[in-house]
Amino acid sequence: MERILSNQNSRVKSWAKLATRKGRQENRTYLLDGWHLVQEAIKASAKFHAVMATSEQMEAHLADVPHGVPAFEISAEVAKHIAGTNTPQGIFAEISLPEKTFDPSYVFDGMWLLLDQIQDPGNVGTLIRTADAAGFKGVVLGEGTADAFSPKVVRAMQGSQFHLEVLQGDLSHWVDSLATNGLPVYGSELNPAAQPFQEIMPVEKFALILGNEGQGMQAQLAEKTSANFYIPLAGQAESLNVAVAGGILMFHLALGN
Amino acid sequence: MERILSNQNSRVKSWAKLATRKGRQENRTYLLDGWHLVQEAIKASAKFHAVMATSEQMEAHLADVPHGVPAFEISAEVAKHIAGTNTPQGIFAEISLPEKTFDPSYVFDGMWLLLDQIQDPGNVGTLIRTADAAGFKGVVLGEGTADAFSPKVVRAMQGSQFHLEVLQGDLSHWVDSLATNGLPVYGSELNPAAQPFQEIMPVEKFALILGNEGQGMQAQLAEKTSANFYIPLAGQAESLNVAVAGGILMFHLALGN
């Protein structure tokens, strides 16, 4: 097995570049950090390009890595460099980005979450994890939403990208297609002129749009929805964190499923 | 007005120390970063020790700062140093930590959130903000929970510390006192042997305990509760983020309030 001890090694440089969107687009791959995620990728039969681990981690896990995957032993220094953090677990994988094209014209059922310009990577990852937990079929990231395969989003998703569809898409096209196919599309607003969410009964198939942390959903999307609702606030806080609001709405709407 | 241009200035050094728990405990003060929080503190009549702002921010806001508060003009460099981030807004305040002692023996009503060893500052801050939004009366941080006045928690609270009680406390003592005073105390577990949360009806007064991100609530607390419940998950995610779980539970229980 090749041992890599220097951050100047060309492979290390290319792994470190996967922290950027440009690097991921050029290679069509992204990084998993930690055994939990690597294990989820193995279970999901993801396409592996490499496994990199410190000697300790390699010893603990090499037997579980699929045959034929190139394995590299790395130093603790290299592990920190790839992770971009000071305390990585010491095991990584480089796997393919999902290559799926997905046409919403063929979506006739399931629960779907549409993210409109949500910028914080932690929020995006937590929302995908929550959609998975609530039994959603997929999450569609519109233009302006944080990239789903950046290190911070990947950390917050905790492997949920292997359990549901995580897609880029034109939200306007998605909303039109789902509405044509008979799925109600719900928007969420900060505006108390909208409907309190408790008035919407759980349904089997639908789409829910969540909007930007500060500005909310784009007006052009709000106009296309079947209903727009808000979460009534009893206290003095002006708003909820978007991931918390999403959790409340998803678990309310999905309750019947 | 004194102008401060160097990070070596003794005042700057003491403000930077407020990023640590030790620094805050020694001074009995903490920092607010950004006009939104400073404004919330003014509205709440917090005890100000200083306002620090770049010339631009000072010009925009000095008129709104209470009379008699020492004001310091700082350079952009000093602002970054105090903030510990690269893009601060450029206005800060140093205010007193809440000095309140709070005896749960005298708590007979309201909704209370008890945080047991929740470590991530973003989760703690978001939970306090969510409790505020749901109309809770206070949040009690048990031993091992992230300090409520660290910069990351303060950022995530978004000023909610001025709207409800944010207290340190011995959770075991709180649970005993509230139960004696007739408030049901609900625990949350990851364990599906607990009760699904939908079976608990909204009530007017109660306490809700949320536990550590990985381990959940301490067993010694779980034994003292009126009921322990969990959020049934339909998908493959193993768990929810604790702030999302807290949001779902708080808004379910508080619905009647």
TrEMBL record, chains A, B:
One CC-aspect GO term: cytoplasm
Which keywords annotate this record?
A: Methyltransferase, Transferase
Domain RNA 2-O ribose methyltransferase substrate binding per the UniProt entry, residue ranges: 31-101
A single GO molecular-function term is:
RNA methyltransferase activity
> Which Pfam family is an annotated match for this chain, by its short name?
MRM3-like_sub_bind
Transferase listed as a keyword: yes
Some GO term, biological process aspect, for this entry: which one? RNA processing
The answer to keyword Acyltransferase applying to this record is: no
Q: Which family does it belong to?
A: Belongs to the class IV-like SAM-binding methyltransferase superfamily. RNA methyltransferase TrmH family.
**In its UniProt entry, what is this protein called?**
TrmH family RNA methyltransferase
